[in-house]
C-alpha cells in the first residue's frame, strides 16, 4: 500500500488523527488569541512550524497572508496534512525531513533570515528531542526571530507540558541548561483554568531588544 493511502486509512480509523487535539494550537482559544496578538505586534514575514502532524495549525497559520513553511518527519501524517490544507496550498510549503536539517537549510538563506520570522516549535514526540538544537540553529543564525514552543511548562500555573525524562522536560530548566544569554522569555498571562482545549503550556522567546519591547506591551504575555 502507498504511504499516502496508509495515512488516509489511519485518518479514517484513528479518531485522534482527525481531531489533532481539538484543532489549531491544540484547540486552545487563548493560545490562538495570543498568536494573533504576537503576529500583530511583530508582523513576521514568514511562519515556520516544526512538526506538521495533520496540518491543523498549519492551516490556521495560512490565514495570515505570509508564507508558511512546515516540516514533518513522518511521511504518512504529512500526506494527510497536505490533503487537509489543499485549499491553501499556494501559501504553504511542506518538507519531509528531520526538523534540524530542515532548519539548518532554511536559515542558510541570508535574505530570509534578515527579516523577522516566527517559529512554532512542535516537533516533540519521542525520546529524540530536537528542541535544543532547533533553538540554537535559529538563534545562532537569525537576529530577529520569535519562537513559540508548544507543550512547555508555565511556571506557577497548571498548564500541561511534555516530559521526556531527566534533562528533557520542556521547562525553564531545559532552557537554563542551554546557557544562552541572548534569550528573552515570555509566558501566557491567561491562567490554564481559563484556557480551552488541551490546555498545553507554551513559552515565547526572542533574541532582540525591539521584539522584547513589542512583546512586553502585550497583556496576553508576561515576562519569565
Ligand atoms: C505534537 S505533533 C505536531 C502537532 C501540530 N504542530 C499541530 O499543531 O497540530 C508532533 C509531530 O512532530 C513530528 N516530529 C517528531 N520529531 C520530529 C523531527 N525531529 N522532525 C520533524 N518532525 C518531527 C511527529 O511525527 C509529529 O507529527
**What is the average per-residue confidence, as pLDDT, rounded to a whole number?**
92
Q: Do you know the CATH architecture?
A: 3-Layer(aba) Sandwich
CATH evolutionary superfamily: Vaccinia Virus protein VP39
Give the ligands present: S-adenosylmethionine
How would a textbook summarize the main sheet? Answer: 8 strands, mixed
**What's the tally of helices?**
10
Order of helices and strands: HHHEHEHEHHEHEHEEHE
Shape verdict? globular
Instruction: Tell me what portion of residues adopts beta-strand conformation.
Output: 15-25%
Q: Strand order within the widest sheet?
A: 3-2-1-4-5-7-6-8
Helix content percent band? 25-40%
Counting helices, strands and paired strands, the structural category is alpha/beta
The CATH top-level class label: Alpha Beta
Rg, rounded, reads 17 Å
Q: What is the strand tally? A: 8
| Low-confidence runs | none
**Under CATH, the topology is which?**
Rossmann fold
Keywords:
single chain, 224 residues, alpha/beta, Rossmann fold, eight-stranded mixed beta sheet, 38% helix, binds S-adenosylmethionine, SAM-dependent_MTases_sf
Description:
Helices cover 38% and strands 17% of the residues. The protein is of the alpha/beta class and 224 residues long. It has one domain: 3-Layer(aba) Sandwich (Rossmann fold), CATH 3.40.50.150. It has an eight-stranded mixed sheet, sandwiched between helices. The longest helix has 14 residues, at 29-42. It is globular. It starts with a helix and ends with a strand. The mean pLDDT is 92. The protein binds S-adenosylmethionine. The site of S-adenosylmethionine has 18 residues, from strand 1, helix 4 and strand 2. InterPro entries: SAM-dependent_MTases_sf (IPR029063).
Amino acid at each position: 500500500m502507498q504511504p499516502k493511502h496508509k495515512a488516509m486509512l489511519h485518518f479514517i480509523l484513528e479518531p485522534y488523527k482527525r481531531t489533532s487535539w481539538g484543532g489549531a494550537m491544540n484547540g486552545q482559544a487563548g493560545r490562538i488569541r495570543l498568536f494573533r496578538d504576537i503576529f500583530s505586534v511583530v508582523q513576521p514575514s514568514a511562519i515556520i512550524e516544526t512538526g506538521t502532524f495533520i496540518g491543523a495549525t498549519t492551516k490556521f497559520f495560512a490565514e495570515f497572508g505570509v508564507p508558511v513553511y512546515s516540516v514533518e518527519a513522518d511521511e504518512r501524517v504529512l500526506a494527510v496534512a497536505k490533503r487537509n490544507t489543499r485549499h491553501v496550498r499556494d501559501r504553504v510549503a511542506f518538507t519531509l525531513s528531520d526538523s534540524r536539517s530542515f532548519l539548518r537549510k532554511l536559515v542558510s538563506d541570508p535574505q530570509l533570515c534578515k527579516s523577522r520570522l516566527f517559529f512554532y516549535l512542535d516537533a516533540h514526540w519521542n525520546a529524540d528531542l530536537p528542541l535544543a538544537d532547533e533553538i540554537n540553529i535559529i538563534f545562532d543564525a537569525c537576529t530577529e526571530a520569535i519562537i513559540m514552543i508548544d507543550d512547555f511548562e508555565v511556571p506557577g500555573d497548571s498548564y500541561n507540558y511534555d516530559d521526556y525524562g531527566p534533562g528533557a522536560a520542556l521547562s525553564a530548566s531545559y532552557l537554563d541548561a542551554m546557557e544562552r544569554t541572548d534569550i528573552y522569555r515570555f509566558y501566557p498571562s491567561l491562567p490554564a483554568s481559563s484556557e480551552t482545549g488541551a490546555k498545553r503550556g507554551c513559552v515565547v522567546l526572542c533574541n532582540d531588544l525591539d521584539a522584547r519591547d513589542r512583546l512586553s506591551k502585550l497583556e496576553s504575555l508576561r515576562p519569565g
